[in-house]
Amino acid sequence: MTSAHQTPGAANTPVIQVTDIRKHYGAIRAVDGVSFEVRPGEIFGVIGPNGSGKTTLFNSMLGQITPDSGRIQLKGEDVTRLGPLELSRRGVGRTFQTLQVFGRMTVRDNLIVAAQEHQGSLFSRMFAPSDSGLGARADALIDQFRIRHVADRKAGELSYGQQKLVDIAMAFMSEPDLVLLDEPCAGVNPSLVGGISRLLKELNRDRRGSFVVIEHNMDFVMDLCHRIMVMVEGTVLAVGTPEEIRSNRAVLDAYLGN
User: Fold this and answer.
1) Could you give the angle at which helices 160-172 and 107-116 cross, rounded to 10 degrees?
2) Are residues 185 and 246 in the same domain?
3) What total number of domains does the chain contain?
4) For 73-102, what is the mean pLDDT?
5) Which of 85, 129, 196, 213 has a CA-to-CA distance to 245 between 20 and 30 Å?
6) Domain end (from 146, 174, 202)
């Protein structure tokens, strides 16, 4: 039986490989020579104190900023200078720290809109069914996220926690190979955090996708992730399993404060 944190797909080509990425703003070295890889089916966590470079790294991986040097490969293809839309079409999904739901649209329509850009040309979409043929996929995610009871309500009418679930579900509508989750527990009632963790484990198990997660909730990261990378001042301090990170003296001194 596989242990809770055994890394899957270790022998396969990385889903994403980051090599010596650097992004400087004048004298500030926001990301300074970061390298790592995420394997097929792996949940990979990124932690570090504020100002450690996590957000700059994420934005570089998502095509929102272009690194000064280094290389980012998606399934072996160099995507270092591609923008967010091209990366999305190549199988990268994401969530943001702040909610990205459309408050005046129903939950179901939010999910459908999230995937429509992957449905070919504008001309082909004009002659597709009213739900662009995405209704069944949306319904499957609605059931998996246990939000069937609010599927026909406007997203803006929901609680923050329910909107957060919709926001995460939207990232999976395009059936991505890689999902980058930016603080999925931010602002969420502590009672919902365990549910989000269980849900992401289900999605990882059922869809075999890979996730990269930035999150300040250490218990959440330690429970969810197969491996964790710790960043400090734009550099990589350590990479390892949750057990290895917990016992790493440099990490404890620099970040966890124990």
Assistant:
1) 30
2) yes
3) 2
4) 92
5) 196
6) 174
User: What range does the domain containing 132 cover?
Assistant: 104-174
Query: Kind of pairing, strands 16-25 and 28-38?
Result: antiparallel
Looking from the CA of 181 toward its CB, the CA atoms found within 13 Å total 31
- Quickly tell me which residue has 């390892």 as its tokens: 240
- For residues 145-161, give the mean pLDDT: 95
Question: What is the DSSP pairing of strand 77-78 with strand 235-240?
Answer: unpaired
Q: Supply 127's token pair.
A: 């002659």
**Per-residue pLDDT, 119:** 47
Q: Which residues pair with 19 in a beta bridge?
A: 71
- Rounded CA-CA distance 201/223 in Å is 10
Residues 181 and 257 in one domain: yes
- 228 within a domain of the structure (yes/no): yes
pLDDT of residue 116: 76
How large is the C-alpha radius of gyration of the chain? 18
In a domain, residue 122? The reply is yes
Question: Which residue, 174, 201, 227, sits at the end of a domain?
Answer: 174
